């Protein structure tokens, strides 16, 4: 650890270990530990989407083996149309909570874009969320916030009443906007589509996915490319944020390219496999990780 080209300027990072697709499950502790050692130089928070293939345990093992006492996990519970699959995820969640220190868990997000995919109704998703909250209270872990991650337009007051965290996936690339205005567009979308639904007694909002692909095509004014990725990185991390924005948590999408997502590429859109800061071999792409946040923190201390 300690690469000079990596800087801890990310609030959090979305991460899926290689070969963690059920039921194949070829993920190894060595690969996950190498990934976590890399990501710990960028952030203190890692978010995963599900518990299949032992990935949660492998990440938490890596925290312990590497002595990363400040690292924490946003544990994802993958929820879809299959009740059997969802129960398998919840069972593994219960195992992780019983085996590892609770301070490693910064949040639990029950489902990712479940409503957007049309897998469940709002009421069905709420029942899963309520179950997780009840279970946490049962094991005296009710301090761990619970939410779900959706695209902004799927958030409603009814769903917001049942969560501690309103997590929104917001991608300016899919909004078709030019990269030069993408950072402002993202925050405006959050404030207009998500924040109005916050239940003032208990919920906070975070951006659970935000990023830019390094190649693969374009959508209207949004162009996937390395220079555009660099531009978005610089504006997202470095542009001063006013008091409305500065305390909003966000998870970068994503850490490492995912070759298995090639199945969703089309002749005109090849970006599904190109959202990582690193390629699949853990090589940093031809970009520069900004240092402006570190410089700003140093000035604030002086």
SSE succession: EHEHEHEHHEHEHEEEHEH
CATH superfamily: Glycosidases
The CATH topology name reads TIM Barrel
Number of domains: 1
Task: State the helicity in percent bands.
Answer: 25-40%
Distance between the termini: 28 Å
Q: List how many beta strands DSSP finds.
A: 10
CATH architecture: Alpha-Beta Barrel
Beta-strand content: 15-25%
Reported for the largest beta sheet, the result is: 8 strands, parallel, barrel
> Rounded to an integer, what's the Rg over CA atoms?
18 Å
Strand order in space, largest sheet: 1-2-3-4-5-6-7-10
Return the average pLDDT rounded to an integer: 93
Organism: Sugiyamaella lignohabitans
Subcellular location: Cell membrane
GO biological process, one term: polysaccharide catabolic process
Family: Belongs to the glycosyl hydrolase 17 family.
Observed structural traits:
TIM Barrel, glucan endo-1,3-beta-D-glucosidase, cell membrane, globular, two-stranded antiparallel ribbon, glycoprotein, single chain, alpha/beta, EC 3.2.1.39, 302 residues, 9 helices
């Amino acid at each position: 650890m300690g690469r000079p080209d990596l800087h801890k300027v990310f609030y959090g990072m979305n991460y899926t270990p290689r070969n963690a697709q059920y039921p194949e499950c070829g993920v190894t502790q060595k690969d996950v530990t190498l990934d976590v050692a890399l990501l710990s130089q960028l952030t203190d928070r890692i978010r995963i989407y599900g518990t299949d293939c032992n990935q949660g345990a492998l990440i938490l093992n890596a925290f312990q083996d590497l002595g990363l006492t400040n690292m924490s996990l946003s544990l994802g519970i993958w929820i879809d149309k299959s009740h059997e699959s969802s129960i398998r995820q919840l069972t593994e969640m219960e195992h992780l909570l019983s085996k590892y220190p609770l301070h490693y868990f910064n949040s639990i997000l029950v489902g990712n874009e479940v409503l957007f995919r049309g897998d469940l109704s709002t009421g069905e998703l709420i029942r899963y969320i309520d179950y997780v909250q009840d279970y946490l209270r049962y094991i005296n872990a009710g301090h761990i916030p619970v939410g779900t991650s959706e695209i902004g337009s799927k958030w409603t007051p009814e769903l917001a009443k049942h969560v501690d965290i309103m997590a929104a996936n917001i991608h300016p690339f899919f909004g078709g906007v030019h990269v030069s205005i993408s950072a402002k567009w993202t925050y405006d979308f959050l404030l207009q589509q998500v924040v109005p639904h916050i239940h003032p007694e208990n919920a906070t909002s975070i951006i659970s996915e935000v990023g830019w692909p390094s190649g693969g095509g374009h959508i209207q004014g949004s162009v996937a490319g390395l220079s555009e990725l660099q531009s978005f990185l610089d504006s997202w991390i470095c542009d001063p944020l006013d008091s409305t924005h500065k305390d909003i948590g966000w998870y970068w999408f994503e850490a490492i390219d995912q070759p298995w997502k090639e199945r969703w590429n089309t002749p005109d859109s090849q970006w599904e496999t190109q959202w990582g800061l690193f390629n699949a071999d853990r090589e940093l792409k031809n970009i520069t990780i900004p240092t402006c946040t570190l410089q700003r923190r140093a000035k604030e201390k002086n």
